Amino acid sequence: MKSIRTLIIDDEQSSIELLETLLSEYSPHIELIAQAQSVKEGIERIQELKPELLFLDIDLPDGEGFKVLEATRDLNYQVIFTTAYNEYAIRAFEHSALHYLLKPINIDKLVEATSRYKDIPEQGFGEEKLDELKKSFHQEPDKLALANMLGYEFVEISQIIRVEGEQGYSRFFFLDNKEVLVSKAIGEYEKLLNPHGFFRVHKKHIINPSYLISMQKGKTSTLLLEKGHQVPLSSKRKPWFISKLKGKIAF
Prior knowledge:
- There is one protein chain.
- The chain is built from 8 helices and 17 strands.
- The chain is α/β, with parallel strands linked by helices.
- It has a 5-stranded parallel sheet with strand order 2-1-3-6-7, sandwiched between helices. It has a 5-stranded antiparallel sheet with strand order 12-11-10-14-13, covered by helices on one side.
- The chain has 2 domains: 4-137, Response regulator (Rossmann fold, 3-Layer(aba) Sandwich); 143-245, CATH 2.40.50.1020.
- Helix 4 (87-95) packs antiparallel against helix 6.
- The N and C termini lie far apart (47 Å).
């Protein structure tokens, strides 16, 4: 079987290393020629090395992976998207008839996806398909259903300042100073809010960066949000948080 020259674009080194290991063991016809960890680096590697296949993460520090495709659409390659996004992103991929792998990557799904790539693609990632995917991908719901004793309260996601975990519960803080306590763990809401640009900055805290005012240094970094909210920034998450923030705020 002919080797397929392949580039991995992902900002998490651990994800790259895991994918490299799995491909080496289960898809030996996939020849890894390089890796990149940002939109800028990905574009440079594609233009320099002209790979036949990309493993492309959607969420990169300096923008969405779609920017890589837009900048290199004149070159011939195929794409397998890797993502931790929710069901709405999955529907977008399926609607556009594109291949994707959910993180953490399932071995059987990986083998199934890579077995389709045995020859050099006849054409690159078309402009029409890219535009269709971007349109579908960004059709996220603008409301979130929060369960209560009477049923559900539907809240505007854009009005959420932050979420705080409280022993299996989650407390929502809103721009109008309202608070809502829900009997669901914060990890569940991390999955739902991640596609909307929210960041989990601490094991107990998720924030909406749209309301971020400042980051105060100290023994423990503190994030100051609008309406006087203060949230600790985990030291382990700090480098990741700053890299993600650079894709949303000009530094």
